[in-house]
Structures are given as C-alpha cells and as structure tokens.
Amino acid sequence: MKKHYIPLLIACSLLNNLANGQEVGTEQQSKVDSVKLTKDDTIYPKLQVKGLFQARYLVSGTKDVDVNGLHHSDGSGTDNNFMVKYMRVQMRAQISKRTEVTVLANLADFKSDPKTKVLENAYLKYTFSPKLAITVGQFRPWFGIEETYPIDIIKSLDWSNQYLEFGKLGWASFQIGVAATGETTLGEMPFSYSLSVVNGNGKNQVVDNDNGKQYATRLVFGLSKKYSVNLGLNGGIGEVMKKQVHALGVDLTGNVNFGKRWNLDMQLEAKQAINHSLYYSLDESARSSKLSDYLVRGIYFLPNLRYEVNYFNLSAFELSCRYEYIDPNYKLNANGRQTYTPMFGLEFLKNYGARIQLGVQLDRYKKQTENTSEFNKNLFIIQVQSRF
Fold first, then answer.
1. Nearest Cα residue to 139 out of 196, 95, 183, 58
2. Alpha-carbon distance 152 to 172, whole Å?
3. What's the Cα-to-Cα distance from 302 to each of 250, 312, 319, rounded to whole Å?
C-alpha cells in the first residue's frame, strides 16, 4: 500500500515550497545551489507560444486497400486523400525561476470524436536542480528514443509502429501521472534518467480504469561524445485489472559527421511487453492462454542522411529509410509486420521551420487477412509542415 502514497508525498513537497514562496535549498546558505542566486529582473509569468502545422496527401498503391490501410474485398474505400494531421498550439508559462506550466493541443483532432483527443500535454514541472525535476499532469513518460523529441523533428513519416503499440499499453505516448527526471555524470560519462508513475489508460481520461498503476524507468548513458552515442535502457512493471504486467526496451543512437555538410544520424530500438490491451479485448472464451503469454515484440532501425545546403531559404536535404518489425502476439499467434519507409525531405529556414517530404510506406505481413488492416499494402505520401 505504501507505493500509493509516493505521488502524494511528491505533491506535498511541491506545495510546501510553493506556498512558502521560497526556492528549495535556500534554507542553508552554506549549501551550493545548482541554480545560482543572482539578481533576477525577469517579470513572471513569462509566456511562450509555439505551433505546428502538418498536412499530407496520401495515395494507396494497392488495389482494394484504402488510405488507412484497411482492405475492402468489395472495392469500396478511399484510395487518395488530403488531410491535416497536426495543427498544434503550445503555450508554456514560466511562472517562477523553477516552475513552468505547459499546455499542448492538437486542433486537427476535432475532425473526429475529440473525447479523448485534442489535449495532449497539460503539466506542471518544478526543477529542483539539473539533477532533479518533477513533472505532474498529462505528459509523455520516457520509455524510448521517440518520447524525447516532438513529432515535428522526426526523421521519418510518423511515429514507429512500436511507439503506437506501446502507447496503447500505457508505456508510451501521452499518459496521466507524475515523473522525476534529471541528468548528471558518472565519472566523465553523461547520464540521464526518468522515473514515472502513470494511470496507464491514456490521455484525457476522467478516471483510471482500475486501481493499478504502471511504474517505468529510463536510463541513458553517454558512451561517446564525439559520435553522440547514447545507450538507453528501459523497464517497467505494473498492474492492470489486478494482473501483473511488464515491459522492457533497449535503444542506441549515434551521429557521424562527414566533413562540414554531410551528417548521418542513426537510431536503433527494440522492445518487448505483455500485450494486455490485446488480452482484455478478447472474450474470456477466446483467450487461449494466460496473460503473460500475450507478448508484443518490436524493433526498428532508422538511418537519416543529411546534407547542409544553406542556399537562400533552403537549409538541407534529408534521406531516410526506416525498417520496422513488430508482432503483437508473437508467442501464441505470430503474424509479423515488416514496414519499410523511405523518405526524401527538403528543409527550409532553420530548425525545420518548413519542410516538404516525399516517401512511401511498404507494409508486409507474414499472414494476410481480407477485410482487415493485416494486408500487404503500399502508401505514397507527400507531406508539408511548418513550425512557428
């Protein structure tokens, strides 16, 4: 029962510091604070507004398969489509030197039932020091590479299939809970960490769907500063409907410069978890084994080659090809999905201020099933985006 009081203790600590109007660590002047106590003329709150627009044109290259990947044996379905994927607006309010509140909404989600959509980030973050920050609210707990950066600077078309699958399981994507993050050094090695406790039933939920919580951790070790090689280890345990669940993951990133203009960025990630989402979606009579036998396993590799042009507004060319393999039930009913996503991109302005991408997504299944999304397909994409 003690584990249930962890979030309450953290909240009480934050409220005590905020209510007393003092910064943590100022009680003993002899202690050296990581945030230097210098005269600060900043007027709070400090507001920052950002946004992202992203639109696509999609064409299905496979007969009888629509743009969402669903097969139609009767030939129905839409095989080409314009769509607005993201119209994000973010507001960040720095209300003190250590405290910030962030809100992120995707207005494009109003195109369908917005009940559990639209609002993405909604959290308060209190930074004690670079070694410790507490985040409370709705956010993305770190459980891999993709949780550490936004969609607008992703090196491929979209999030990996693995990321989306683990989001359904409560380990990735937007969740409601509390997290502790920080960074330091182990000797000369850079080290960062994240510890999180979440409901595990997704974003914008009125209440947790059971009394269980999911506990996750991510540890990142900087192995090489020259080549930006980082090793990430991820692990999580939890309880869903009074049954134990777990997840594991490992990832590796690196970056190699070839002269002043050429750059190769690489990501490799593998994960495995109990697929409780699949298990509980089945009728009891259809469950062929115990929960721990329903396992999802995935891996992806994403190399991205970049050439800096810096010619007027054109900043760079990018070429990537992500390979993915995922099987949502590999132990009991294996049906591996392989996805190849070659993409060519043009970056305009700086820091992906504007970008045009062209590519194709190729899906191949071990076993195909008519009138489902488990069907081989090719999807052609033109995507434009702008950050502001």
1. 196
2. 17
3. 15, 29, 11
**Going residue by residue through the chain (388 aa), what tens digit of pLDDT does each one get?**
445 555 555 555 554 554 444 444 444 443 444 445 455 567 999 999 999 999 999 999 999 999 999 999 998 999 999 999 999 999 999 999 999 999 999 999 998 888 889 999 999 999 999 999 999 999 999 999 999 988 888 889 999 999 999 999 999 999 999 999 999 999 999 999 999 999 999 999 999 989 999 999 999 999 999 999 999 999 999 999 999 999 999 999 999 999 899 999 999 999 999 999 999 999 988 898 899 999 999 999 999 999 999 999 999 999 999 999 999 999 999 999 999 999 999 999 888 899 999 999 999 999 999 999 999 999 999 999 999 9
Q: Which of 254, 252, 251, 253 is nearest to 227 (CA)?
A: 254
Pairing of strands 99-106, 119-129: antiparallel
Sole residue written with tokens 């930074």:
127
Q: Which of 18, 64, 70, 66 is nearest to 44 (CA)?
A: 18
Are residues 120 and 102 in contact, defined by beta-carbon separation less than 8 angstroms? no
Two tokens, residue 307: 């050439």
Specify whether the backbone of 170 is left (phi greater than 0), alpha (psi in -120 to 50) or beta.
Answer: left
Q: Give the whole-angstrom CA distance, residue 19 versus residue 290.
A: 49
**Hey, how many other C-beta atoms are within 10 angstroms of the C-beta on 159?**
15
Q: Which domains does the chain have, with CATH numbers?
A: 56-84+132-387 (2.40.160.10)
Report residue 206 as tokens: 């009125």
Q: Closest by alpha carbon to 381, among 340, 324, 323, 327?
A: 340
